[in-house]
Structure formats: C-alpha cells, structure tokens
Amino acid sequence: MANQAGELSYAVRPHIILKHFGQLCLVLAALTLVPLAVSIIFGETPITFRYVVVEISLLLLLGTVLARRPSPSDMQTNEGMVLVALMFAFSPLVMSYPMMASGLSFIDALFEAISGVTTTGLSTVSTLSGLPETFLFSRVWMQWYGGLGIVVLSLALLVHPGLVAKGLASTEAEVNDLIGGTKAHARRVIKVYLILTAIGIAGALLAGMSGMDAVRYTLASVSTGGFAPYDNSLAALSSVAQWWVSLLCLAGAVPLTLYYRALRERQNLPVDMLQLYSVIGAALITTLLLGTSMRLVDGMPWADVLHHAPMLAFSAQSTAGFASMPCSDLDADSKLVLIYSMLIGGGTGSTAGGFKIVRLLIVIAIFRMIILRACLSRHAVLEPRLGARKLQNSEIQEAMLLILLFIIVVAISWLPFLVLGYNPLDALFEVVSATGTVGLSSGITSASLPALLKAVLCADMLMGRLEIIAWLVLLYRGTWFGTRMEAA
C-alpha cells in the first residue's frame, strides 16, 4: 500500500497513456472483427459498412499511430486506472455507431453499448423482434469480452510482461484477482474462460437450443451479462435450458482462478472456496426469501414459486440479469429481496458485479470480532480473520470503503428518479441493478425514459463495473497536474 500511495503522488504521463491506449485500440479492433464477420454472413450491409468504418478508419488507424509512440516500460498505478477507465468509456462510444444502423437513436445505442461492455444487460429497446441478427449478436459479444475485460486480453496478447503488466493489473480489483499481475496468469484465465464458453455452448445444444441461440445465451451467461435474444428472456427456453443457463451464470460468478488452480495446480484455495460456498449460500437464501414472499404476499401458485424463485435468485446473485418472469410483476417484498442480492453480487475475480460477497464477509468478520472482544479479557489478542486467513488493515479499509461508495452512488443516483416522480421502490431497483451491473428491470428502463435518467444509469453501469475508485482517480486533479515521474 505504501508503494501505491507513493505512485499516486505522481501525475500521469500522457505519452504512456497514449501508447497503451493505442495498444488497447488494436485489441478492440481484433474483437470487432467478429461482429463484422457476422454482419457479412447475414448480409446486413449497412451494419457491415459501419463496422468497416469503425474498424479501419478509427481503431486500426488510431491504434497503430498511438502504439508506435516511444514510452518507458514502467507504469504507475494511477496510469493503469486512468487507462482502463478511458477504455471502458471509449469502447461503448465507438460501438454505438454500428448499433445505430439497427434504428436506435444515439443515446439508446450508447446505452445499449455501455450495458454490453459493462455486462449489465439493461436495455431501452422495446422489442427485439425483427432486429438484425448482428445487433443481437454484437450485444452479447460485447458482454463476453467485457466480462473478462479488455485489459486482461491486452495483457495476454500485446503487453510485455513486467511493470507495465503489473500497473494495468492493479487498476481493477477483479483484474488484479484474475491475473495476479502477470501475462502468464492472464493467458491461463483466458483459457478457463474459453473452456467455460465451449462447455456452455455444448451444453446449450444438448439442452435443445438452436446453434445461434446456444452461442448467444452462452456468451451472455459466462460473462454474467444477461442480454437475451428474445423479449421474454429465459421464458423463451425450455425448463432444462433455463437451468443450464442459470448454472453457467453461477459458474461465471465465482473466482475464475478457482477452476485453474483446483484442476491444474491442485492448490488449496480456502478464500476462493469460501466465496464459492457463500455465493451459492446467498443464492439459496435469496431463493427461500423470494419464494416465501411470492407465495405469502403475492399468492403465487407453488409450481410457479418453485420455478421462478430460484431462477430470479440465481440471476440476481450472479448479477446475470436473466429473468424467467417480468420483475415488474413482483410484489414489493420480493423486489426488496432482489435489491439486496443484486447489491452484494458474486465473487471477486469473477465476471459478476455488485460490491462482491467477499467484502460483505470481511465486514461480518469485523462485526464478529467486535462482539467477541466484549466477551473476552482486556489482554486477550483477537485478530480479524476470513476463514483461516488473517485480514490486513488495508483489506478491511478497502472493503468498507467500496461498500460505502456503492451505497453513496446508489443513493445519489436514486434522487433524480424521485424528483421526476418515479415509484421509489422501482427506481431503487433500477439504480441498484445498473450499479451492480445486473440488468434485471422493474420496467422503468425504456426508450421513453428521459435522457437525463438514461445518463444516470449509464454512469451507474460504468462506475459499478470499475468499482468506482478508477473513476475517482480519473477525475482527481492531482492525477493530471503535478510532479511527473522521470522515465525509467
């Protein structure tokens, strides 16, 4: 922490930001080739033209020019944070242009692209019926690469190992947990991600989905994104297919390091296993509370309760955002249960959003220690622990700060909805869904939503994806003005 504090006392060096921004543009250009190919296959020429413009005129040209700039090999923590924040803002802005070919206004196309890159799944589109195949695919494709993170892909494919990789890896808590700051670990995690995707597609086909649906639902599931190609989301699938999609969402909501280390390195990972058990446990508790509310408050038949309660609970806890029924039809108590679940989210080092369940466990451990101290001798030594692992003060401070920041963002974002007269509970549901990058909707998000509120939800999705701190660093005056470190 002392080292990071020292690094953050220096202003960012623009030439380093520009060089690595150019490299990330080249990564994005490579990723954009996939929807470009899909548009060619389906003969959707207007969309093809726009992707060609984005690909050649912007990403390749800009990336090539900037990536050739000379710069030192080291990277400060704040430079990594700024770079990732800029890229997550730039990517949806660029991808909005091809999406507008499907008849969307700029603000709606931007909303859709931000929802895709941040793996949220909220949509202002009134109906998906009749929309181009490329549009439906490009949304889930953005969720797929947004779930793993453009930064991780760049670490594996372009950036040389060393201090640059470490600087980039420390920009986002999820990325730090995923790759451990090394190019080798980034490649391992991408392998896990690809294997999960391949297994997901195979299982979806066996569950009776068509080839294109299997691909689209799988991309949106392992990324915990939740964009579905049909208006009724999960309800368009068979019961077996719905359960398969839910299991894929759960697989994406637990630390990806768990798979690789457990199978290849055979290491004991107590914290990762604790996160796995906690995510499953939280989803089961949410299922129980949600089912009780559906039955006792809403009077829903048992057959519907047993079907919808676990589907919505696992979708909310994994922050995937698939829905087996409209959330607008739920009673107030059920919506409150889902709000708490969406706010907590999945595990660190996963593709899930929320403030992460491990941070809730840290806070619970602190409360437990405070209570135990009241029962012990004054001379007794009691240290905060998460499982068998001793917690560091920096970990405790970070956990409590991020939870506080999430609550502050939700509270501030909620106010404009209240001022404009929206139902308080439905507005809170929508704001939490956006900030937790979930995608479940109370029915507020639509094309008719005022532009101001669309902008609020866009900001929530971006802040939730990068866990807020990166944006604070980006906006901090000392990040841009002040003493700069000499080139290494």
What does this structure look like?
- By secondary structure, the chain is mostly helical.
- The chain has 22 helices and 2 strands.
- A two-stranded antiparallel sheet has the order 1-2.
- The longest helix is centred in the first third of the chain and has 28 residues.
- The radius of gyration is 22 Å and the shape is globular.
- The N terminus is likely disordered.
Q: What share of the residues does DSSP label as strand, in percent?
A: under 5%
The proportion of residues forming helix, as a percent range, comes to 55-70%
Order of helices and strands: HHHHHHHHHHHHHHHHHEEHHHHH
Described by strand count, sense and barrel closure, the largest sheet is: 2 strands, antiparallel
Instruction: Return the structural class.
Output: mainly alpha
For the termini, the CA-CA separation is 21 Å
What's a quick, concise take on this entry?
The protein has 22 helices and two strands.
Summary tags:
mainly alpha, two-stranded antiparallel ribbon, 22 helices, disordered N terminus
Task: Please describe the topology of this protein.
Elements: H1 2-7, H2 14-41, H3 45-67, H4 77-99, H5 106-117, H6 133-148, H7 150-157, H8 163-169, H9 173-179, H10 183-206, H11 211-222, H12 239-252, H13 256-265, H14 270-296, H15 302-317, H16 332-344, H17 357-373, E1 385-386, E2 389-390, H18 393-419, H19 424-435, H20 451-465, H21 469-475, H22 477-480
Helix pairs in contact: 2-3, 2-4, 2-6, 2-7, 3-4, 4-5, 4-8, 4-21, 5-6, 5-20, 6-11, 7-10, 10-11, 10-12, 10-13, 11-12, 12-15, 14-15, 14-16, 15-16, 16-19, 17-18, 18-19, 18-20, 19-20
